[in-house]
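Here is the promised in-class demo. Please do not try to memorize the tokens; focus on the logic of going from shape to residues.
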């Protein structure tokens, strides 16, 4: 009588063990082939710092440029606004942004590292927006940008 209960318990554990193993292999295969990649489900985002707002942005794989439309809400005009990256430095021509206005700021990515259709993340190549408040001191802010690379 005791042997039958032990055998039933062992069969129960073996059956569920195999089922659990099959489920784990299926999840592993989905993750390996990129079906469960969280990067595909993340939204595009662009943030700078309080007072500076990304109205629009484009990561252009064809021209190897990054364009951000920056709106100035700091309370005073900005002079010499540039956008640069760690890998390339500042390649943009400085622009001025009057209080309340918005201007496109463009930088080169230096070397064609953008692949159309893939995700661009500022974590890979840190973008920095440098500016000087009119009559004030220079500042640098990191731009958090995650977007799909467009053609």
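The designed amino acids, position by position:
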């Amino acid at each position: 009588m005791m042997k039958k209960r032990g055998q039933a318990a062992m069969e129960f554990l073996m059956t569920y063990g195999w089922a659990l193993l099959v489920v784990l292999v299926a999840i592993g295969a989905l993750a390996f082939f990129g079906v469960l990649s969280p990067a595909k489900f993340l939204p595009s985002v662009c943030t700078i710092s309080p007072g500076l707002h990304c109205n629009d942005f484009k990561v252009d794989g064809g021209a190897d440029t990054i364009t951000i439309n920056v709106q100035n809400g700091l309370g005073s005009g900005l002079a010499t606004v540039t956008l640069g990256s760690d890998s390339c430095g500042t390649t943009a021509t400085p622009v001025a942004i009057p209080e309340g206005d918005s201007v496109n700021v463009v930088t080169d990515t230096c070397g064609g590292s953008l692949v159309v259709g893939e995700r661009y993340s500022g974590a890979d190549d840190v973008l920095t927006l440098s500016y000087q408040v009119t009559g004030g001191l220079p500042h640098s802010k990191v731009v958090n940008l995650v977007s799909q690379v467009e053609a």
